[in-house]
Design goal:
The complex is a heterodimer. By secondary structure, chain A is α/β, with parallel strands linked by helices. Chain A contains 9 helices and 17 strands. Classes of the chains: A alpha/beta, B mainly alpha.
Amino acid sequence: MVTLVLGLLSLSGLCAFLALLLEAAHAVFADYGPCRISINDGAKDLNVKGGGRLLGTLMDQGIFIPSACGGRGSCGLCKVRVLEGGGPILPTETPYMSVEEIADGTRLSCQVRVRTDLVIQIPEAFFLIKEFRARVVGLKPLTPFIKEVHLKLVDPPEIVFKPGQFIQFQVPEYEGSPEPVYRAYSIASPARLKNEIKLVITRVERGVATTYIHTLLKEGDEVRINGPYGDFYLRHSEREMIMIGTGSGLAPLMSILHQMADEKIDRPCTLYFGVKSRQDLFYQDEIHELAGKLPRFRYVPVLSQPLAEDRWDGETGFVTDVVARDVTDGSRLEAYLCGNPLMINAAVKLLMERGVTEDRIFFDKFG
Amino acid sequence: MESSLNAPVIFFASIFTNNILLANFLGMCSFLAISRELSSAVGLGVAVTFVMTCTTALNYLVYHYLLVPFDLVHFRFIAFIIVIAAFVQLVEMLIDRYSPRLYVVLGVFLPLITVNCAILGVCLFMVIRKYNFIQSVAYGFGGGLGWLLAIAALAGIREKLKKAPIPKALEGPGISLIAAGLMALSFMAFSGMIQVG
């Protein structure tokens, strides 16, 4: 018995000693001291603490670079040009870069460490992105797996965004996540409501952010968001539109449809909404209401696995299969897609085969 | 009973006759993965040599002054791996701080050293063959150099192979495995010189 306890103690002691040693080493060696970041030829100069990632460091200073994956290097959105001090490009970045981007110093800001003084270049629009404090005024289950989060903006009180864009939601520290993380969610509400936004959030199994939002977030909580971001928004033209959404990918499309109703944009438009079964459909009343205001709007819900009790007589199968059947000549179409990457890849391929040119396909892929 | 071989013999044996890679086939994954370019292969080889030498020494002390007195030798796998992992973390921090260029070259491969079985293998052989401290360090250092020699040689061959006409079916891993096999065969020519283990 004594041997056992002694043995376990000494083994634990070894681990504790090594952990302490690493902590001490981290404190000594990972301290890079103060660094200076000069943005856009001196338009803004920041004095920051070195050692962190560029994305997070800029965010701490109130400059928000779009990022959908929260800094894991898997979405490729947080591109900035690093002119000096960024070091060579990393193997984790090259898959997201074109040859021209590599040549002009474009980097993923979530992969660049602030080790020395930096000179960087970011699009002016990024200065307009703000951080908002907001209050949760409504939490409504839309389907068994999807919740609508209704936020009222507190400070600043108004957001100006293009329908289709997304914001980043800050999940504070909680037992599922030792540090705050950011996740991107599209705005589902109309842009005319400047004081409030609605987000549509699917629960992801073991997802750090969605678990928090689905289990811990309560009405009345204060949350932080930043945005708006993204180039997924309605383009002005007279072309016929096709919209394809799956699951919570309906959110930005709803915002765009609201915009069309509000601004009386009368274009032929078909919305294909793909989910598994009837219980996964949501916003049905809102869609029908919008259909009343949009004379040339057509709505096609598609169930991939309808249940027996659904008594479904509408379209079934994959949403892309239905589109494949309906669209024969895409040369005059403009497409807006939002949803999971598999659907988007399949839809883009299909639409291009049907003659929709690449510059008329807009999509928002869930990273 | 302690091993009777003296340290220099063990040192040379672990480079040539008992090369950890080409005789024991340990550490094959990074051997094949990072041998496309000579410069990164040598970088990784140097890092492995350094980590192997230091962790063999550390693990010798851990084994003989912690595990044996407390009768914990059956925990040696866990203890060795923990020591190796912690040491790699430390090295990673140091390289990151003082040689960003090397850090970029090694990049994601550095953490791979943690699970380089050659390093754990050397620590375990040290126990099995009952080496003393000096012998262990010589074995660790020699083992690392042997690994470096092998990966540098393969990287050199693979750089040549890039320009060679290779049958389609053998491109990439296929021809590399054949090259590694031939290298192992040629190293067997050394095996008559010294016998260890």
